[in-house]
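Here is the promised in-class demo. Please do not try to memorize the tokens; focus on the logic of going from shape to residues.
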């Protein structure tokens, strides 16, 4: 009897526990805070920075949540002044900074679920008040027309000094700059990015135009020559097979030599542009002639800031800066083999580089042919 009663109690307990309702609720996932922001510009500890610059950073979230940022900056460490709140951009422009001053800054990243992460404190030091400037125009290398909406960026030692967008006249300018070697670049949709090294001395007001090459699937090579205000007239020359393409023989696109001189500039800056549509199994030789230096007593080509860029399709293949040594009016830049291989030459000479025809160039000033030697 006792055993039967014990069995009934065990069975009752078993079924009572097995049929008990589960009142537990699903576990809510824990939100994860954003990752720590990472500095981009200016580099932590950067010195000699301009009094107007752009702070930039990157940041990610473990759950890919959308992020906003608070920006703190000042001359105390840590910075206590919030100069921007709840912005979505990962950059912030600062202007009117004091010269020769150390600044501290940090970023607080936040997601929409109230989680936040404070970045480390970074710093940079400004230089003296700059008195130099760089200005110019962004143009189409094939016709020298100004380009609207090109984004121009100026950098010093990999730190972004500023970014501007060109208006209808293609104009850009950067003011209050210190001396140094800058990188000036321009981008625009459907054009190949142009990037140039620009040396700036204290107080210099430099004009520097940037021709951009449009992307194309119908050309083999495009050669773009640009330079500074002087010499007034640098000429691009290409020997291709038995043909000499230059200002007096500007070539043809659809027939031999399948090459054209697109722009001939005689007033400084350039560009002078030569487009090769079909190499046609012919070798090429490219050089630059300091025409106004030879005939008008203009400055030496070594002082011209001249640069040559070689493009193919949508790619920059080669970039050349005029040599700082050598004597003569001719800058022999490169050869192209019949198979398309580019061989660097890049030297200044007093002897005209010649092609297969040895045809002398035409003197556009005096309307006569001139000797192929200096």
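The designed amino acids, position by position:
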């Amino acid at each position: 009897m006792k055993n039967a009663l014990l069995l009934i109690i065990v069975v009752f307990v078993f079924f009572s526990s097995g049929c008990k309702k589960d009142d537990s609720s699903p576990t809510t996932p824990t939100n994860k805070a954003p990752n720590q922001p990472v500095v981009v510009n200016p580099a932590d500890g950067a010195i000699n920075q301009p009094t107007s610059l752009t702070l930039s950073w990157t940041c990610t979230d473990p759950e890919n949540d959308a992020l906003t940022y608070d920006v703190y900056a000042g001359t105390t460490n840590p910075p206590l002044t919030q100069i921007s709140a709840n912005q979505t951009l990962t950059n912030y422009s600062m202007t009117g900074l004091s010269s020769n001053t150390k600044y501290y800054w940090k970023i607080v990243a936040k997601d929409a679920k109230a989680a936040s992460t404070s970045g480390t404190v970074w710093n940079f030091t400004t230089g003296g008040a700059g008195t130099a400037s760089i200005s110019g125009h962004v143009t189409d290398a094939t016709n020298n027309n100004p380009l609207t909406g090109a984004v121009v960026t100026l950098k010093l030692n990999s730190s972004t000094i500023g970014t501007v967008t060109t208006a209808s006249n293609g104009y850009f300018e950067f003011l209050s700059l210190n001396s140094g070697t800058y990188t000036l670049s321009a981008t625009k949709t459907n054009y190949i990015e142009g990037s140039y090294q620009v040396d700036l001395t204290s107080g210099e007001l430099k004009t520097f135009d940037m021709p951009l090459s449009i992307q194309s699937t119908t050309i083999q090579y495009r050669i773009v020559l640009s330079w500074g205000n002087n010499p007034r007239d640098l000429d691009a020359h290409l020997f291709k097979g038995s043909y000499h393409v230059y200002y007096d023989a500007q070539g043809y696109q659809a027939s031999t030599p399948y090459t054209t001189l697109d722009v001939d500039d005689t007033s400084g800056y350039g560009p002078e542009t030569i487009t090769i549509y079909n190499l046609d199994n012919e070798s090429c030789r490219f050089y630059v002639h300091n025409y106004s230096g030879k005939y008008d007593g203009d400055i030496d080509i070594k002082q011209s800031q001249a640069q040559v860029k070689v493009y193919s399709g949508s790619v920059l293949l080669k970039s050349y800066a005029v040599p700082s040594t050598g004597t003569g009016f001719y800058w022999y830049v490169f050869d192209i083999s019949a198979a398309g291989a580019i061989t660097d030459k890049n030297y200044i000479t007093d002897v005209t580089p010649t092609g297969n025809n040895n045809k002398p160039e035409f003197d556009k000033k005096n309307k006569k042919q001139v000797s192929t030697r200096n």
